Amino acid sequence: MRDVAIIGVGMIPFGRRDQDSLIDMLAYASMKALDDAHLGDKAVDAVYVANMGGGILQHQTGIASALVDRLSLLPAAADLVENGPASGASAIKNGVQAIASGYSDVVLVAGGEKMREVTGWRATDFVATLTHPESEYPYGITLPGMAGMFTRLYMEQHGLTAEALVAVAIKNQEMGALNPYAHVEMMITKEGIFDSPHSVVNNPLVADPLRLYDACPVSDGAAAVLMCPLEMARELTEKQPVVVAGFGQATDTHTLQERDDPTDLKAVRLAAQQAFDRAKLKPSDVDVAELHDAFTVLEIAESEHVGFFGKGEGSKAALAGLTRFGGKIPINVSGGLKARGHPVGATGVAQVVEITWQLRHELPKERQVKNAKVGLTVNFGGFGNNVLAFVLRRAS
Amino acid sequence: MSNLQITGYKCKHCGRIHYPRHEQCLQCHGREFESIAPEGNATLLAYTQIFNLPWGFDERFLIIGVAQFGNGIKSMGQIKAESLDQLHTGMQLRPVWEPVRYVYGEPVYGLKLEPMG
Q1: The pLDDT of residue B55
Q2: Nearest CA to CA, how far is A348 from chain B (Å)?
Q3: What was the ipTM of the complex prediction?
Q4: What is the number of domains present in chain A?
Q5: CB A257 within 8 A of CB A249
Q6: Which residue among A91, A237, A303, B116 is buried most deeply as judged by most CB within 10 Å?
Q7: Is B1 part of the contact surface with chain A (CB cutoff 8 Å)?
Q8: Domain boundaries, position A16
Q9: Domain-located, residue A281
Q10: Which domains does chain B have, with CATH numbers?
C-alpha cells in the first residue's frame, strides 16, 4: 500500500451563511484546497463529498455530481459519503483507501452542511433522525438529550464535575475567538456562565445537566482536503506534505441502552487504537488533537478513551489546564466544534484541515503548537456508534 | 408513525436480551430468538430533562430515560415527572401505555414511566 499525503487544504468561515447554497460552500472550500496545493492543471481522479442532510434540509440529492460539475473536474469519479456527523472523516477515509490501493492518485475530499436555513426546531429534529427510528426517535430524544444522559452517568461513575465542563467551554471559546474560521468568536467567563446568580439566565439548561455553553452551535460551513501518494507529493506541490500515518474506524450499538457500559465509548477507544497501531505511534507522541466536542463532556470522555488520560482523569486534566494551548496535550486549539461550529458534514474534514495547518506550522503564534509533528483527530458519529480517528504526521 | 410496541428478543443460545431487534445476537451471533414482552416494573438506568425539543413536540420540556424491566428488557421512555428532583438512578418506575407524541393530530402510544412511591 502507498503512503498518502495531504497536499492542499481549504476552509471557509463557519457560521450563518445565508448568501451561499450548499454547493457554493463546497465549491469555495474545494477551490481553496486546490489553490493551496498549487495543483495547476493536474487532474483530480476522484472527488468524495461528505454531507449528512442535503436530502432533508435542502431537498437536494446527487450532491457529489453537482459539485464535480461546478468545479469542472469532469470526468473525475464522484461519490457522496453520508455517515452522520462522522461523514467528513468517512469521506477522507475513502479517499485515503483509494490512493493507498493505487486506484486513484489525486483525490479531493469536500465536506459541507447548510443547517441554518431551517428553524432550530427543524435542525434539532434533523439531527435526531440519527437515533433509532422505533425505540428512540418517537419519544422526542435529541442528541443533546443523549449527551445529557451520558453526562449524568459520567458524573455518577467517573467523577466528572460541572466545573470541568465549564473549563472546557471557556477554553474552547477562548481559542475560537482567535480563529477567523470559527462560528463563535466570543470569550466567556466562569463568572458569567457558572458562578454568578445570573448564570442560570445566561447559560440555561439544554438537556440536564448540560447547559447552553456545553453545546456546539448549529452552523453552515465547508472544508476540503486534497491528497495524493506521498511519493508524488514533492512533484506536485512545494507545500510541506502531511502524511496520513494511520486511521481507525469502529462502530457500536445504535442505541445507548444496549451497551453493557453506556459510559464506555468503545468505538472511540477502538478507532483510536487502530489509528495509533497503523501509524506505529502512541498517544504520548501526539502534539495536538482535535476531538469531537459537540458537547463539552465528549472532549473530556474522548481524551480518556483515546489514551491521553486514564478513566476519570480527563476532568482533572481539563481543570488543571493540561489540555489548554501550551499545556501537556493541547486539545481543540481551533475552538473545536464548540466554537468553530458543527456543520455536520464538514466537521471531520475541518478537523483534518486544522491539524494540517498545525503540522505545517502555518498558524499564527497564538494558536500554533510549537514544533508540532504528530496530530490526532476524532470524528464521532451518532452518539458514538460510528467513530473515526486519524493520526497525521509531518513528513520528514 | 404507528403505535410503539416493545418486543424483546431473547437469544435461544446464550440468553442475551435484545431490544430493538437484531438479526444476529450481539453476544454469540445466534440467529434464533424467543420474543418476549416487558414484565413487571422497571429500574431507572439513565435520564435527562430536555428543553430544546425537536419538531413535532409542543411541550415546554420532556423528561426521558432508559429503564430496565424485571425480565431484562431495556427501553427508552418518557418519564411522568414534573422535575428531576423526583428521580434518581436505580429507582423503581411503573410502566404505562400512553400517547408519547401526536402526528397530524393522531396520538402515537408508547412507553411512559411513572415514579413509584
Answers
A1: 86
A2: 25
A3: 0.96
A4: 1
A5: no
A6: A91
A7: yes
A8: 4-119+218-236
A9: no
A10: 39-115 (2.40.50)
In a domain, A320, yes or no: no
Q: Which residues pair with B99 in a beta bridge?
A: B109
A196 interfaces chain B, CB cutoff of 8 Å: no
The residue type at A122:
R
Residue A40: the pLDDT is: 75
Per-residue pLDDT of A125-148, as tens digits, reads: 999 999 999 999 999 999 999 999
CB contact under 8 A, A138 and B20: no
Query: Residue B56 pLDDT more than 90?
Result: no
- Looking at residue A101, which CATH number applies to its domain? 3.40.47.10
Q: Count of CB atoms within 10 A of residue A35's CB?
A: 12
> How close does chain A come to B14, measured CA to CA in Å?
15
Does residue A200 sit at the B interface (CB-CB below 8 Å)? no
Closest CA to A52 of A182, A221, A226: A221
Instruction: Give chain A positions within 8 Å (CB) of B51.
Output: 204-207
Residue with cell 490512493: A99
